[in-house]
Every structure is written in structure tokens, then in C-alpha cells.
Amino acid sequence: MKRNELARKWLPAVALGLTLAFSSANAGSAPAGDEDVPVKGAFDDYDKHGDEHPAAAGDAARSKAYSPYAGKSYPMHVYFGDTHNHTANSGDAYMAGNSLTPEQAYRFARGEEVVSSTGVPVRLSRPLDFLVVSDHAEGLGIMFQVQEGNPALVSDPVAAQWSKVLKTGTPEEKAAAQSEVVKAQAMGTLPKVFKDPKVVGPLMMSVWQQYTATAEKFNEPGRFTAMIGYEWTSVPGGNNLHRNVLFRDGKDKADQVFPFSAWNSEDPEKLWEWMAKYEQKTGGKLLAIPHNANLSNGRMFELVDFGGNPLSKDYAERRARWEVLQEIVQTKGNSETHPTLSPNDEFAGDLGVAGWEYGNLTLTDSPLKPGMLPTNYLRGGLLRGLELESKLGVNPFKFGVVGSTDVHNSLTSIEEDNFFGKMPIQEPSPKRWEHKSKQSDWDAKLGPTKSRYTWHYLSAGYAAVWAVDNTREALWDAMKRREAYGTSGSRMTVRFFGGWHYRAADARARDAAGTGYAKGVPMGSDLPKAPAGAKAPTFLVAAMKDPLSGNLDRIQIVKGWLDKNGKGREKIYNVVWGDADRRKIGADGKLTPVGDTVDVANATWKDTIGDPQLAAVWTDPAFDPSVRAFYYARVIEIPTPRWTAYDALRFGVKMPPEVPMKQRERAWSSPIWYTPGT
Amino acid sequence: MMRKIVREPLLHFLTIGAALFLYFHWSGGGSGPTSDRIVLTAGQIGHLAAGFAKTWQRPPTEVEIKGLIDDWIREEIAVREAMASGLDRDDTIIRRRLRQKLEFLFEEVDAAVPPSDRELQAWLTENADLYRLEPQVSFRQIYLSRERRGSATEDDARTLLARLRAAGPDTPIDHLGHPTLLPREVEMSSLAEVARTFGQEFSRSTEALPVGVWSGPIQSGFGLHLVWVRARVAGSLPDLAQVRLAVERDFTADRRRRQLAAMYERLLAKYRVVIERKAADDDGGKSGANAS
């Protein structure tokens, strides 16, 4: 753009802005910066680096399209959803009293009011953007075989004969007829009526095919995505190795297979084999999201394969290929880290650890022992990944993060003031908080008996995905490139970029995202190669509150790296915080606490502390270019009432002091990795 | 361990679910749970093999077929023995599963009949309010942060508003206001969508703003905003083509509910239901002959 042209287009506006600039010269509490006026913004930078970003503001003014957003190819919206919802098609959910089908799960997620399995009307404050109904595969495939003898077939004489036999014949006749049907089905010699889609379509449908059909019905590209998926429920000895498998594809491809279940094999490598075969056969795409590392008794990131052999490069490549995300939070706790592993992290044990650190999923087998901790949480997994990468040449644990729910009542209803529990028995009632969901059954030698109660459950979480559109393909692609983050249930917006050129002013850019993409890479990526002369990586991080949840307390960056001995280390940096005029980092390295405005008795709070938005550019002050590292952002809200506080108020019940009544909602970004020499 | 099984729905399901399914599948034919013959026909083996192939994407080997057969026989034995010992009686889970399967079969038959346009139109007319399209608005906005300006924010807003009004409609605004992740341009969106980003308070306020004028400041959880409403679409009743997908979904869901209720009504006629209440509600016992 020519200078004079720019001046002509922008001069009036700049003049207009200047007036305001002078009036705001001594602006308030924003973190330190060169200038802090609402005039100079991103376009000054774009002007200098005009070619860096195709959709810079100046270009938009010049281009024909009026909208400055037209033609942007990077994700402008974050989409919130749940990748982990169980309906009545899940055997355990159904047996536990869930009578809501996938249809109701979708309706609810789209914002409609439904009646829960326990008869309570429920509705979300705001619709979700996407939902993966991820019923357990175990049992789905077998249900497929229960269809014979349906009255819809009796228009055909052969079928009518079979039907008659099945209804009234002797056991032997029935057996013969049934095997004829089965055989004809296998050989493709079924009567014509069986090929009439109207008759046979629904008849031949398995639960899986019926499910994929329901997903098609509720999938509205651009508005609401019903992504196809299921859960592979491997739980050897009560150790949780579950994975949700997500399809990029529609029914046409998904129907070509039966979901691979843990009844087929509990070994994740077998699951990956199946996923590879699916892709080969259909041309479709799959990814897997493990969950509840915290309930795996150290097996989620163990340093051996399922058979106990040391990990190989081949294993590392396949795991990194298929398992691009991990679920960091859900109703069954927080898998980020444990206070024993992260003693200097003041947010390591405050949310979703109590009650979940006793043992594995079923509290069988053994208590969680200290030796299991390093491979039992995601931060440890990321560190083990760096360690393994230096040995194997490939990082097997190169994952991003999402949150999700694992609800078994079809209702992704995890807003603190609208929590419907994980199981139907945990739906709202005066007594639900004290319901005992699990009790350990290890013997006294192993340790004292431990119990998990409903009050230990978190009203959490969401998967937040930076996709270019709300479609199966776009969301899946974003997940695949790990451009996603997890929240504990709040819908805050989080941007996180890494590169070598971010400057303080970029955090105040009008189009932080444009600057972010133009000068670096988003969450989930590898840092680009360091340019000559670059001393340390820089990170642009920005967050905006959920309009219905609390203000933001702070943004932190969690760094993990390998020390001289090749061992993983971690450090937490507070990089920007609310109320900056009255808060600072003390001699102990801790930031002045933000305060607490929660009124527990009335289950309310005030946004008089913290900030609605935070942004900063942070440079790693201790960067060593010779060692592997990762960085992820964590955004902490001010304290707000926990679901238990709403229960206490609405049901007029008093809970003992160990039951938390408030909590700090948060978000975790996917990491950005640095590898020496790349 | 039993204690655990009773408590743990997932384990419960994983351990006995398979047996139940298989039993219900095969009990309709074959050699019946009360017979001492266990017959596995070539067709059934073919079916087991086909199921295997669809999961593993390859046919089973001889060893694997043998494994499938052995497993099936073991399950058949377990199921028969369990039935003979009456383990199935009064079992909530088996009862629920049977009911689910019955309703499942029924629903499949129902789903085979696509609704006609006339039915859908009638449904839409009758339930018009469910499909009323929300008012929509498109706008540009400039954000002013109270965190940065405190009590001066209101004055700033008024000053800027006056100048914006003077500057005309096409004034570039990208450099105005405070930095934010909020969009400055919002394309035609329903008020609910606006509320998802800006909050309820802001969304409601936009309803009263005139089109084509800089207005405000209006308040949100983030701070103050000056807003230029570009255009507005009033709420309206859609025609069928616009909402066909939703209408079809709702119509068939409702039809299924009605037909399921009708099926139970029909089946109920086959039974004489006696409800015996405690002596205390004596009266209820007499009048409770009809379970529905």
C-alpha cells in the first residue's frame, strides 16, 4: 500500500482517535508496555511488515471486500463442545437408569429443553456448538445381530414363512429358519424385500448404524456438528485406558465397520491397527482421545507397551499419530498434575484432585502409589514424552488437550448452576452430594478403605476448538492439528501463539489473532526454526472471560524441559494478571492473590476483582536452545461458587467442611513444543 | 468382588452384558435354553465370522474361529445355567434390556415410514412458536475498557461517540477503542448468538438501537461499547422449507412417542393388571386396576 493512499484512507480516523488518545494517556491497570492508548494498534505493525499477514487491517481497507474478516483463512471462532457423552446405548448408562437416546443428547446440546431420566426438566444456558456421542463399543456390535423376525418383512412369502416359524414354530424349526436367514444374509441371497431400503433399511440397522443415522439427522454444517464417535473401553484391572475414537467422516464411511471394542482387545496398539485399517479401507480419518489418565494407576504414560516391552520408535510414531489429544478434565477429575509432582504449582491440587487420587477407575487392584505418579498425569506425560523423544527420536506423547464430560445421562449439563451429574443417580436431589459412588476393595494390607462421593465429581468440562468452520471436517482437522484447549466448564476464549518475533505491542493489537498467526504458530504446534540472532522464543497469549462466568485472575505459562541429565523439569510463570495496579509478584515468587467475592450462602459472586480480558507477550527468561521444551498456557478465573454451593442453597442442605463450595475455573491450552536444531 | 459388581455399572455391564445379548439373540431359535443340545449351525458360525471380519477388517483365522466358537459355547452354557438357576428372574438389568430391545424394534419399524409434506406442514402450523425465527442483527462495535480507564470510561465513550457521528458511516474503526478479542464486526446473527459472545445484557440492549447510527455507550460484562447497527431482521414465522429438518425431527420424535404409547395401550389390553396396595391405602387398591 502506498503511503499517501494509506494516509488518505486513515487520516480522519487517526485524528479522531488521537483526541481520545490524549484523554486516556494515563490509562489504568494494563500490564507494562510502551504505549497504552487506544489509537496506535496493530495496523502500525502491519504497515511495517505489510506482507506478513494477508488480511491485515490496511489491506482490508484497500481491498474490495468491505469486511476486514473476509478471506481470512485462520480460525476466527472457537467452538465449544463435548467429545464424550454417553446415552442409553451405553450398557452401563442404561443399566444405571439412563433412558435418553442420542437424539435427546443432541437436542439438549443444541439448546432444547429435555426431561432427564429422573424426570427433571433441564436446559442449557446456551447451546453447544458440537457433540460427540461416544457410547461404549462393548455391546454395540452384538446388538447388531438381534434383528431377525421383524414383522416389517412379511410382505414377502419367504420372509412371511420365516416370520411365521419364528413366531410359532418348534425350537428346531426356528433354528433352521434363523440360520437360513443368517446364511442368506451372509451370502447375499435374501429375498427381494430385504433389498427394499424402506423395509430392510431400518431392520438391518445396528445400534451403530441407527446411531450414525441419528448423527446425520442432527448434523447441521455451520450451525451444529454431530461428530460420529464411540468409546473403546479398555480397563485392565480397573486401570483406566479408555479412548474416545472420533470420525472425520459421515455415515457412509463409518457404517463400513463395526467399532473396535475392548472385547476385541484391550491393547491400544490393536486399536491403532484397526484405525489404520479403517482409513485404508474407507479413505476416512480417525483420531483417538484418551481420558482419565488420573485413574490409570500410572499406566496412561507408562514407559512400556501393553505387553511390558520397552517402547519402540514405531510405537512412538503410531501413538503420536493417532492420539493427538488427551482429555485433561472431566466429571471424574483433573488429570493435569498432582501436588506431589508439582509442589511449586499453587494450582496443582485445588481442583479435581481430591477423591480421585486414591486409586484407579474402579478403586480395585491397588491404591495409587507414589511410583505411579510420574506417568499418571498429563504434565508428566508431556515430560516423559520429551525424555522418550531424546532416546527414540520420536515423542510418543505429543498431545494437545481438551476437556469433556463423560456424562452417562446423555446430558452435557456441567454448568455449575446447572449440574446434572455424571450418572442418573447424581441428578439433582438433596442427597446426591453424599451418595457414595465407589469404595475401594483392596485389602487392609494395601491401605485404608477409600470412598468417592458425588461431591468429589467436577461439573466439567468443555472441549474448545479453533476451527475455520463448525463442520465435522473443520473441527476434526483442528483437533488433529491440536488447535484446541480444555476448560473446566467455563466458556472463556483463549489464544496462545509461539514464535520468535512477538513484541509487547502485539498483545495490544486490535487483531491479536491476525498478529499471532502472521508472526508465529498457534497452540498445538512446533515452534518454527529459530532465525539467526533469536535469543529466546516469545509467546503471545490472550484470554477473554465467559460472559456468564467469573472475571480472569491471571494467565500462566507452564514450561517443561529436559535438564542436563535428560530429566524432565517444570516451572510455572505468571505472565499477566488482573487488577495489575494492586498486585505484584512477591519475593517468594507468588503473585498477590486476586481475592474472593463469593457469597456461598447465596451462591453468587461479584466481578469487582480480576479483569474481563488479559493479554501479554512473554519471552522465556531461561531459554536454553540446546534442550527440548514445551510451553502451555493456563488461564485462571477468580473464585466462583461450585455446584455444591448451588445445591446447598436450593435444597437447603448443609454439607461438611471438607466439601468445597467454591472453585477456580480454568482453561489449559495445548502445548507448543521446541526441539533443538529444528 | 460381588459387592463391587453390584455397585459398578461399567464392570457390571462389561462382564455380563455380552452374555445377555448373545442369549437374547440366539434364544429365539436353536436349541432352546431348556434343551441339553447346544447346536451352532454353519450359518451362525458364518455370522460370528462376519462380525469378526467387520471389526478387524479381515476374516478370522482357523484358530480365531475356534476361539469364537468356544467362547460362544461357553456363553451359551453360562446363560442356560444362569437361567436354570433363575438368575434372570427379577433382575432389573435384564428387564430393562428387554424393554429397550422391544422398544428399539418398534422404533425401527416406525422410522421406516417417512412423514409426508402435509403432515409436516400441519405440525409446523400447530407448533409455529417452536420454530419462530429469532430476531437477527448485524453490527460493528468499538470497545472501551473500564479496567484501563475506570471512571473516565463513560466520558471517553461520549466523546468518541460524538466524533464518530460526525465522521460518517464508513469511518475505519479498527484502530479505535481498546484491544479486545471481541469481534468488531458481527455478521447477521441471532440475538442468542450475540449473547453467547457479548452476554445477555449487551444482546438485549442492541434490540433498542436504531439502524445506521452510532449509538451507545451500552454496557456488557467486558466494559462499554459504541455500536453501529448495520441491519436488522425481525423475528418471523418460517415456512416449511426453511425449517424442514427440524420439523421432520420433531414430528417423527412425537409420532414415535405417540405410537409407543399406543403400542403399550394395545398390549395392556391383553393383561389384567392388579395393583395390591397396603391396607392403609385400601381405596387405591380397588381403583388401581389400570396401570396406565
Write a concise synopsis of the structure shown:
The complex is a heterodimer of chains A (678) and B (292). Chain A has 678 residues and is of the alpha+beta class. Chain A is built from 17 helices and 23 strands.
Provide a descriptive summary of the structure in words.
The complex is a heterodimer of chains A (678) and B (292). Chain A is α+β, with helices and mostly antiparallel strands. Chain A folds into 4 domains: 1-73, no CATH class; 77-144 and 205-463, no CATH class; 151-204, no CATH class; 527-678, no CATH class. Chain A has helices at 3-23, 42-48, 57-62, 91-95, 102-109, 140-143, 157-168, 171-187, 197-204, 207-218, 251-254, 268-282, 313-322, 378-392, 472-480, 512-519, 643-651, and strands spanning 77-85, 114-115, 121-122, 130-133, 225-232, 243-247, 286-290, 325-330, 333-334, 400-403, 436-439, 451-453, 462-467, 484-487, 493-499, 520-522, 538-544, 552-562, 568-577, 613-619, 629-641, 662-669, 672-674. In chain A, the strands form 5 sheets. In chain A, strands 1, 4, 5, 6, 7, 13, 14, 18, 19, 21, 22 and 23 form a 12-stranded mixed beta sheet that branches. In chain A, β18 and β19 form a beta hairpin. Chain A is globular, with a radius of gyration of 27 Å. Chain A starts with a helix and ends with a strand. Chain B is an alpha+beta fold and 292 residues long. Chain B has 3 domains: 2-111, no CATH class; 117-128 and 238-287, no CATH class; 134-233, Roll (Chitinase A, domain 3). Helix content of chain B is 57%, strand content 11%. Chain B has a 4-stranded antiparallel beta sheet with strand order 2-1-4-3. In chain B, α2 (9-27) packs across α4 (62-84). Chain B starts with a helix and ends in a 5-residue tail after the last helix. Mean pLDDT of chain B is 81; it is low at 1-6, 17-22, 24-33 and 282-292. At the A-B interface, α1, α3, α4, α6 and α8 of A face α1, α2, α3, α5 and α8 of B.
Describe the protein's topology:
The complex is a heterodimer of chains A (678) and B (292).
Chain A: H1 3-23, H2 42-48, H3 57-62, E1 77-85, H4 91-95, H5 102-109, E2 114-115, E3 121-122, E4 130-133, H6 140-143, H7 157-168, H8 171-187, H9 197-204, H10 207-218, E5 225-232, E6 243-247, H11 251-254, H12 268-282, E7 286-290, H13 313-322, E8 325-330, E9 333-334, H14 378-392, E10 400-403, E11 436-439, E12 451-453, E13 462-467, H15 472-480, E14 484-487, E15 493-499, H16 512-519, E16 520-522, E17 538-544, E18 552-562, E19 568-577, E20 613-619, E21 629-641, H17 643-651, E22 662-669, E23 672-674
Parallel strand pairs in A: 1-4, 4-5, 8-10
Antiparallel strand pairs in A: 1-13, 2-3, 5-6, 6-7, 8-9, 11-12, 13-14, 14-22, 15-16, 15-17, 17-20, 18-19, 18-21, 21-22, 21-23
Helix pairs in contact in A: 5-10, 7-8
Chain B: H1 2-7, H2 9-27, H3 42-56, H4 62-84, H5 92-111, H6 117-126, H7 128-131, E1 136-144, H8 146-149, H9 153-167, E2 185-190, H10 191-198, H11 200-207, E3 214-219, E4 224-233, H12 240-268, H13 282-287
Antiparallel strand pairs in B: 1-2, 1-4, 3-4
